[in-house]
Amino acid sequence: MHELVGALRSYAWGSRTALAQLCGREVPSPHPEAELWFGAHPADPAKILADGASRSLLELLEAEPNRELGAVAPAFGGRLPFLLKILAAEEPLSLQAHPSADQARYGFERENHTRVPLDSPMRNYRDDSHKPELVVALDRFEALAGFRDPLRTVDLLNSLAVPELVQYTELLAAQPDSGGLRTLFTTWITLPQAMLATLLPKVLDGCVRYLKQVDPLEPPGRAKEFATEARTTLELAEAYPDDAGVLAALLLNRLTLEPGQGLFLAAGSLHAYLRGIGVEIMANSDNVLRGGLTPKHVDVPELLRVLDFEPLRAPIIEPEPVDVHSFRYPTPAPEFALCRYELAEDAAAADIPRVGPGILLVTAGTVLLSQAGSELPIAAGSAAWISATDADIQARALGGPAQLFCACVGE
Which candidate in 123, 275, 290, 396 is catalytic? Predict the structure, then answer.
């Protein structure tokens, strides 16, 4: 096992406090810090620290795939099949989805054939992999994810009392299924700018009226839920005025993840993270198809080709207890598995079964990792690389409670 240093990525939607605080650095940071990557993606591989030297994890895996990856090397072409991140969003991310494996292979080959450079901002497919992903909240984490039940959306749109929405509400009410969602989403996301400039202000006025009539002391229920939806719509419009993605966001589940809860997104699931900090694990891909709420490249026709319009009815994942220390997050993804360890001060060490190839990421406190007579202290914001040849590991908190995530290849 060796210490692994993540690759820091700065985007405008990132936070100047969240990652800096987690890593124990000066706050605020000079620039928005959005993601800390722990993996071997060619775009930004993490660094292995060993014997006083630094080496790219990607270089190590390319040089010794069988020793480092073991039995999973042939199945994934000698590559680490997952990418682990800490994500910190202060502003909303784009309205986006990720392709399936077949869609990614076809799209990657097509863009290679048309000679779109890999580093071009107009590129959709930067690799040939799909990108199922799981995010686990470290603090309250807010997101839009998956299409809401169509009848619930009809109820929401009627509650806004906007005459200009009636034709769209009736469309969805007449076909309250994936077909109706496809028709309405496609209509809104491709709305001519002149029509959008007329409709969107009316919708925003409806959101303001609705919020004024909701009692702040209202108990949890439909009114409170719809108030959150209306408030989110206004916030998105303030960040991205005249963007059709603001309308489209009205069709999605508005979610709040409490610390420890997870959200799994399969291929084709439309989503936009709004704010918060979390641990994210995904297939080792950087393929993103955007539909709005961003200054970056948007490709609506390609997004429509990959979207899954089936309503996502129970998107939040509750962790499953494994023992007194650990919790797992079950997903169908073969590329990755994720467990969370809560380590109390002065408690007995937690046993982490042989996980290599894997990554142990500390997100709070300091953890002492022990293995076959060797020890490695890891502080929050840092990680350890565990190769396929490493034995079982024991982990205990140093100087206070600590939190550790274990990422490995799925079953």
Answer: 290
For tokens 């009410």, the residue is 173
How many helices, marked H, and strands, marked E, lie in the chain? 11, 22
Is residue 142 marked as binding? no
Is 175 flagged in the annotation as binding?
no
Whether residue 152 lies in the annotated active site: no
> What's the fold here for domain 2-144+257-292?
Jelly Rolls (2.60.120)
Q: Is 193 annotated as a binding residue?
A: no
Residue 130 marked ligand-binding: no
Interval 17-58: pLDDT, tens:
999 999 999 999 999 999 999 999 988 999 999 888 899 999
Per CATH, 2-144+257-292 and 326-408 having the same topology is answered yes
pLDDT digits (tens, 9 = 90+) for 203-239: 999 999 999 998 776 767 788 889 999 999 999 999 9
Mean of per-residue pLDDT scores for the chain: 95
Task: Report the C-alpha dihedral over residues 183, 189, 195, 197, rounded to 10 degrees.
Answer: 150
pTM for the full predicted model: 0.94
Domain 326-408 architecture = Sandwich (2.60)
